[in-house]
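job 3f2a | input accepted
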Amino acid sequence: MTATMPDTSRLTGQMLIAGSPAHGTGTPMRAFNPSTGQYLEPVYHHGDQSHVDAACTAAAAAFAAYRTTTSEQRAEFLEAIAANIEAIRGDIIARAVAESGLLEARITGEVGRTTGRLRLFAGVLREGSWNGARIDPARPDRTPLPRPDIRQRFIPLGPVAVFGASNFPLAFSVAGGDTASALAAGCPVVVKAHDAYPGTSELVGRAITEAVADAGLPAGTFSLLFGSGPELGIALVTDPRIKAVGFTGSRAAGTALVAAAAGRPESPRTTPTVSTRSAAKPT
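job 3f2a | predicted structure (283 res):
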C-alpha cells in the first residue's frame, strides 16, 4: 500500500507557542524521506531559550485556570483533539509515511492508537476513580486526642514537558500517551518535537491548538517547540515552571536530562519512558 504525496499547504515551518506561530532562530532543518532520499519542505528552525521561556511562561499562566476545569470539560477536550486529528487523517498519514519511510499500514495503526488513547483517558476522567479520593471521617471521641476529618485526592502538579520519540511519529509524540495523560490530569503541556517528524508534529500540534481554542481554554495549555536536546531540551527540563517530564529516547539522552533536572532546586518528576500515569500528586 502506498500513501499519497503529502500536502504541504497546511505546513508553515513554524513552532506553536500558546496558540501563536513562532519562527525559530536557530539551526535550519528539513525532514528527510528515507524512501526517496530527498529532503521535504518546508524548512523548520530550532528554537532557543527565548522560545522555551515564552512557552513555559504561557503554560504557568494557564495552569491556574486549566487545573480547575472539570473532568467532563477535560474529557470533551481530549475527544476534540482526537476528532481534529481524524479530520486531517489523510494528510497526517501521508506526511508521516514520507518522513519516516514506514508503511502506510503502520502509520494508520499509529493514528488509531493515538486517537484511541485520547479517548481512553476521556473515559478514565468520566469514570472518576483516577483521582484517588479518600475520606477518613473525624473521630471526635478518640483518645487521647480527637482526630479531625482527613481528605485526600490527586491534584495536578503543573506544566509538563514532553519529548517526542524517534521511532513513533504519532503514538509516542506530540499527542501521545504523555501528552494525553498530562492534559487529562489538568496539566498544561510543552512538547519538544523530534527533528525527524517536523511536518507530522506541526499537523498534530495544530489539531491540539485548534481544540484548545474551541474549548475556550487558556492558550498556554499547549505549546510545540523544535530544538536540540543539549540546548533547548536542557533549557526545558531546567525551567522551574516545568513540574514533570515525559521522555522516550536513548539512555544517554535520558540520563543527561535527568541529571540536568536533578540539579534544580526543585527537581521535576520524570518518566524516562512513556507511561499512562497522570501528572498529579496527592493532597
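job 3f2a | Residues 66 and 221 are 7 Å apart (CA to CA).
job 3f2a | closed
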